[in-house]
Amino acid sequence: MRWVRVSLLMAGLALAALHCAEARRCRPSDLSCNPLLALPFYGCLPAQWLTFFGASGVSELQRGLLETRDGGFLAGWKASAASGNPVRAFSAPDDIGVIKVDRLGRREWITFLGTAGDDVVDANMIQFLETADGYLVITHAVGDVAAPLRGQAYFGTGTNRQVLIAKLDRAGGLLYTSFFGGATSNTDASGIATPTGGGFILSGTVDGALGGAAGVARNAPAGGQDIFLARFADDLTPLWHAYLGGTGTEIATFSGPALAPSGEIWVAGSGNTSLAPNFPNEVGAPAGGADILLGRFSSEGFYLRHAFVGSSAPDAAIDIRAAADDGLIVGGQSAGVVGTPIRAHSNPDGSNQDMLVFRTDALGQLQWSMYMGAAVNTGELGSAIQLGADGFIYAVGATENFGIARRPYNGGQLDIVLARIDPVGGYLLEHSFYGGPGTDGALLARRTCDGGFVFGLTADVGFGAPVEPFSESPGTSDNAILRISPTL
Length: 488
Fold this sequence. Notes:
By secondary structure, the protein is mainly beta. The chain has one helix at residues 2-23; strands spanning 49-53, 61-67, 73-79, 95-101, 107-113, 127-131, 134-141, 162-169, 174-180, 187-193, 200-206, 216-217, 226-232, 238-244, 251-252, 258-259, 265-271, 282-283, 291-297, 303-309, 315-322, 328-334, 354-360, 366-372, 381-387, 393-399, 415-421, 428-434, 440-447, 453-459, 478-484. Strands 15, 16, 17, 18, 19 and 20 form a six-stranded mixed β-sheet that branches. It has a five-stranded mixed β-sheet with strand order 10-11-13-14-12, with no helix packed on it. A hairpin with a 6-residue loop joins strand 27 (415-421) and strand 28 (428-434). It is globular, with a radius of gyration of 22 Å.
């Protein structure tokens, strides 16, 4: 009987290893694919780790995150001082910092991109794309970043921002750069999507017309600040661009665009005035303050329609994901009440904002909304929406304590919250908190290849047992990457 039990155990471990390596697309050599950690519903548990990075004595803001094909991660941030032993040196006063860590959170390299001017990325994202021989870094800069060119050089005034596309090799070396934007206007990158057929689609904000080599214009800017979409080929050649906006101020959200199963393109942002008559197919109307603006374009960049979703108080979309029915799932925050929420706003009088998640149909019409947050809070933030292979919606943000959490609140002020939500009815199924005794915010979140999560966050107090230690003095914050298992 003993050999039977041993045989059954070995067969079970082999089955678990197969499930781990195949169903979860992990590598058998990866620590996360230890068959002893395999669970029947959640698959393999990845190694959990936390690592901090950034310069001591200054507060820095993380704005980019990517899981790389080797199981590691890239992170990008606004750097206000030098740190580490960089491949490319820091140039004051502000640069774009990029760090590469391996699958266990150990630093591989760090580098800086920027000029001797102020390369500000406070309010904009740093996006990454992995290529066969390295990484594209997509953000913005003021002035040329010295490197061989592919495409066009910076063609602004020396004081206006343009989109910077920088190519790094796998060791962090800068290979070449290209610029895109307006000759005299500020152009800010927000999000990217990778369509079938190669290249990428960029969303962002511009306060004028795009100039230089910008591809074919699908329409014209309406004035003020407008949202834009631009399609690039693999060699970084701009193919086309399109605008969405009225005579007011329209600003693209931090992420997106989202590609619907039909091939059409969703883009999100904020707006405070009707876009008619320039953009006539309007669903809903601005409700007051800054509302959430959702735009829909064909796969070739032609305008189809747009919708407003919001309340009389300020509302903001932070992340969007296309649903299987061509609708849209949106995560953000609001100080008001959007629709008739499944889960109520904790401060419906508008005194504080809560995390907001809602779903629309393919026309942009609201199907349901729900809120998460504490009754007494310091302003809670939504930051990311991810769709799980299990069909559920996963929302990430920063809140104070609410509900009965699977993993408890850690005290202090804001903690990172990860919530699982029913995609049909918008019901909160479970949630967990992550962080330390201070204020923690997950500005970024991604599903990992094995179904886990990785957060790009900032913290003003160290916590846990990090791979790289917290380096800040009181009153400043550090960046961090937190890797967690597929379970909440």
